[in-house]
Structures are given as C-alpha cells and as structure tokens.
Amino acid sequence: MYTQPNLSKALILAVIMTVGFEVQAQSSVVPPASHAKKAAKKEAPTYVCPMHPDVTSAKPGRCPKCKMDLRPAKTESTLSPDNRTEPTGPKVATPPTARNKMVIPDVEVLDQHGNELHFYRDLIKDKTVAINFIFTNCTTICPPLAATFARLQKEMGEKVGKDVHLISISVDPVTDTPERLKAWGAKFKAGPGWTFVTGEKQEMDKLLNALGAAVSKREDHTPAMIIGNDARGVWTRTYGLAKITQIVGVIQNVIAGRVEESSAAEEVKP
Ligand SMILES: [Cu+2]
Questions:
Q1: Cα 71 to ligand 1 centroid, rounded to whole Å
Q2: Using one digit for the tens of pLDDT, what is the confidence trace for 112-153?
Q3: What are 232's strand-pairing partners?
Q4: How far away, in angstroms, is 3 Cα from ligand 1 center?
Q5: 160 and 81: one domain?
Q6: CATH number (domain holding residue 203)
Q7: What is the domain range of residue 29?
Q8: Domain annotation covers residue 221
Q9: If DSSP codes are grouped into helix, strand and coil, which group holds residue 224?
Q10: φ/ψ of residue 79, rounded to 5
Q11: CA 138–ligand 1 middle distance (angstroms)
C-alpha cells in the first residue's frame, strides 16, 4: 500500500510545520494555554533537540549534533508546574534570518560587580550584543560556553565593549550572586565589555522568557547564543559552541545590520 510511507512523511512534515509555527509565534506572543492545547491535539509526542529543530525523534535521547537531551516538542507546558516557564524547547529555534523586533523587558538586574542595571536600557539599547545563558554550578556546557566567549573576547580584542558587548545571563539567579558570577568569570578572564547578569528570580524569569531561554530546570538550558543589534532591529541565534570564526562572522554581519541566510543557517545546521 502506498499510504504508509506517505503517512509518515506527512507526519514528519506536520511536525516540522508545527515547529516552524511555534517559532513564528514567538514574536507575536500567543496565549500559552491555547497554543499548547492546539499543538498537543495535533500529533503524538515527539522529541526535538532544543538547539537543532531538524533533529526529531519518537523517543527521548540525545541530539547527535550537540549532545543536548531531546525535549518533548509539544508538552513542555503540561510538564511544567509553573506556567511562566512555558516557552522552552523549540522556541530556541528562531530562524537565523528572523528580523523580528525582539521585545526585551527592561527588568532590574545586577551585574557581576553588584551594579543595579536595567537590562534593556543599560545593556541592549542601541548596542550590538552577544548573549549566552549559564549557571556557575554547571559542569557540562557552561564552561565551554564561557570559554567560547573568552575566545571571542580575545579574537575581537578592543571591539568587545565597543562594537559588541558580551552578556552571560544566569539561568540560576538564586545561586548565582554577583560575587559568584564575578569569580566564575575570572576563571575565564572575563574583561570589560563582558557582563554577567543575575537578579531577582521573578525578574530573571521574565527576561529568560522574553529571550526564549526559560527552562524549568537549569540543567535544561540551551547552548544557544543570541546575537542582536538593537539599533538596526536585527536579531539572530546561533549555536553557542560553534567555531569562533563562524561566530565572529555572524557578529560582524549583525553589527553591519544584516543576517546572511546562508552563513547563519550553517550555524544551526552543521
Ligand atoms: Cu550549563
């Protein structure tokens, strides 16, 4: 019978389209409940890599590309006891070409020196930034993420803090005090132009939600790097552990106000 392969093809297509739809939805804030309900009705649970939306599986497991644990593609909201942490998983997969204006909340945060800052006003407005997500107790991807920023800092030299600002946001703000972040950053020789951000959990949740990086468990955080140019309204995501030359390329494009489809797409699909 011809229906069998066609059916599975159609299913895969449906999954891809739904993931794509989710991504679109990010910029236009869809009520989470109805959103999740609609998706759950449409297909059986599928596991998807938070970093590589093209990697899907019917069973839990690990992404062969980045070793992240696959997450249920559609059921995060039902798994999460707290609705505020809902937008996780596939949300990370905002297309690199997205030019949607990111709406970044101006929440009150602390930097690693204990300075009180407003996230948008003081760290994002009119700047080009590269953002990653870390927590100091992490023993898996955070050290290499920080090492990547350290290499960026070295590679881009005095441009860091001028043309581009590095921002590491804690996904474990309760543990990560400014002092802890400072000490952790020192291990990676974090210099000027590299800001570590923590704050009140509630404020940080707002921030992580807005950046599509909220997770119910800190261990689930993503190795994504968000690169954006607020003045030009250009935002993109790339793999936070990609080759330095690639990341520098993306940053230079974003500084120039462009996101090249081809180069940026390679980051997400190695
Ligand atoms: Cu980590």
A1: 16
A2: 999 999 999 999 999 999 999 999 999 999 999 999 999 999
A3: none
A4: 44
A5: no
A6: 3.40.30.10
A7: 3-85
A8: yes
A9: strand
A10: -75, -30
A11: 5
